[in-house]
Amino acid sequence: MFGKSIRNGISIITLFLLLPIINSCSDQQEAPPEPQAHPQTKFYLGLIPEQDLFSQKERYAPLARYLSAKTGVDVELKILSRYGNIIDNFISGKLDAAFFGSFTGALAIKKLGVEPLARPEYLDGTSTYYGMVFTRKDSGIKDAAAMKGKRFAFVDMATTAGWLLPLHYFQDIGIDDYRTWFAESYFTGTHEDAIYDVLDGKADVAAAKNTVFYRLAGTDKRFLNDLQILATSPKVPANALAVRKDLDGSLKIKLQETLLQMDQDDQGKPILLKFGAKKFIETTEKDYEPVFTYADDIKLDLHRYDYRNQ
Questions:
Q1: Is 86 exposed, middle or buried (0-12, 13-18, 19+ CB in 10 A)?
Q2: Would you state the torsion angle of the CA atoms of residues 18, 22, 28, 31, taken in this order, to the nearest 10 degrees?
Q3: Is 45 exposed, middle or buried (0-12, 13-18, 19+ CB in 10 A)?
Q4: How many angstroms separate the CA atoms of 65 and 69, rounded?
Q5: Domains and CATH numbers, the chain
């Protein structure tokens, strides 16, 4: 009996000693889970001013709605007033992705580490474009000497076709400083305006991308009849979707897969057709090598380059 009492006493003491540990374990089990990061619901997609505002919106809005439906994020288009604004908006944190031109894409890769995902393959099977320097056929301009004292129209200091190409061309034909060689040089802001300015006589020479030139020529024969091409650039990637480097990995994959599989989706096919493309193809940093090389040729350091029009 006495032994049994001792055993009961020991059991009670042991129970009291274990209570804090039991309570501690219970508290740990009932503690609320760590708060989880909210999934991204809004996605800001930037567009360069390749065409006028209304044409850009008409072309990209159906694609934005399609991406919203397929990815579960609300894709909102931000059509920018200048090419270089895309870089500024990424730096200030206002964009998640953009359809970059080849030069703004190369700049964003070097300056911001953006990741290209996909670009369109057009209805003619091409996924690249090139720049053109052109004049009126009746201008008599064929070389540097004939350009002396004339007017030159660039597009923007953040374009391959409308800036990088003419600088390279000037170097090739012996124009050391275009600012003193031409009576006037200015920036039009869009490829369309640069082409029209030469056609209408506001500028004597200009540079723009071939895809815009031939799209305009498809509806107005004056572009082919009245304008003459003086030089072209290497082929560079068509406007590709690239995302900020810290974008959620699962969303990045979903965006790329959605674009690459559009041509196999009954809902995606008509949107592709309206966009002017057969499909989207995978795009990587390597596709921008022609732009990197072209910039190196004229000793333009993309890491330090100030893309704001002067």
A1: buried
A2: -130
A3: buried
A4: 6
A5: 42-127+237-297 (3.40.190.10), 131-233 (3.40.190.10)
Q: Identify the bridge partners of residue 78 per DSSP, sorted by sequence position.
A: 46
Cβ-contact 159, 194 below 8 angstroms: no
Which position has the higher pLDDT, 22 or 99? 99
- Res. 75 pLDDT band, cuts 50 70 90: very high
Has residue 126 got a pLDDT over 90?
Answer: yes
Phi and psi (nearest 5°) for 186? -155, 170
Distance CA 133, CA 231 (A): 5
Residues of 88-103 as b/e, b for ≥16 C-beta within 10 angstroms? ebbeeeebbbbbbbbb
CB 41 within 8 A of CB 71: no
- Chain-centroid distance of CA 147 in Å reads 33
Stated pTM of the model: 0.79
Spatial distance between the Cα atoms of 109 and 95, rounded to a whole number of angstroms: 15
pLDDT (tens digit per residue) in 268-291: 999 999 999 999 999 999 999 999
- What pLDDT is recorded for position 39? 65
- For position 87, what pLDDT does the model report? 83
